[in-house]
Amino acid sequence: MSTRSLMILLGVGVFLVLLWQTLFIVDQREQAIVVAYGNPVRVVHAPRQGGAGLNVKVPFIQQVIKLDRRNIALESDQEEIVTAGQDRLVVDAFIRYRIAEPLAFYKTLRDERTANDRIERLVNSSLRQVLGSATTTDIISGRRAQLMQIAKADVAHRAKLSEMGIEVVDLRIRRVDLPTQNRDRIFRRMVTSRQQVAAQLRAEGEQAKREIIAQADKEVAITLATAREQSGQITGEGDSQRTRIFAQSFGKDPSFAAFFRSMQAYEASLANGDTTLVLSPDSAFFRYFERGPTGGAAARR
Q1: CA separation (Å) from 95 to 99, 121, 276, 279?
Q2: Do the domain assignments include residue 92?
Q3: Where is average pLDDT lowest: 50-64, 67-81, 239-253?
Q4: Strand, helix or coil at 96?
């Protein structure tokens, strides 16, 4: 190979190296920080800005650090916390965040590996603080969503104070479990609590039952007293009307009145069937048996 050919190949190689050091591509899913001697110079394709595609930099002096532009998921290690009721819980949480300020993120955290370590410790600290002031029931079901919103706001506030340059998208508890040594004790406590609630509900139901029965008895007594009063009034009116009718009838026909009184006397004396009377055969008491309805008139004659 001649010297000229060697020089041409060397020139092409230098040009390619220079071109490779000058041009760089930023994907739509990425954002890049151009740094010179470790100091940031500019940001390419930052949030709410363009710049994706082919870009240039100063060769050999400037370097490109690429960061993810999408939401980043981070699963924290299991953390054991102590609740307000002195119960121990094992909490497994995850967080989703995005790099909202690349320059602040680079200055504070440098890379995503360091960022994940710092954010994980931040999440664990916030969960211990927020969940430590709640009861086991609240954490498991009662106020879980509300507690997660409080923890999310706390993590976002701490990250802002630390100038991490991140935006917290979501923070959730994936799993809450009891340590093996505490599981049986917590279960017995929950059973006792439910039994107390059941006993209280039964007592309230029994009290309501007694009140309903007492009210029903009162209404029955009032109804019966009203019915007896109305029955007495109706009976009195009937007796009065009967007496008046009898008085009118007796005045019109004295023989019928005597006959009717005798029939009443027979009914009162002989109705039971076990009455024994010792009378003379010609006694006036049996005159209607001998003479029929005209016995009274014959007796008067």
Answers
A1: 13, 12, 110, 118
A2: yes
A3: 239-253
A4: strand
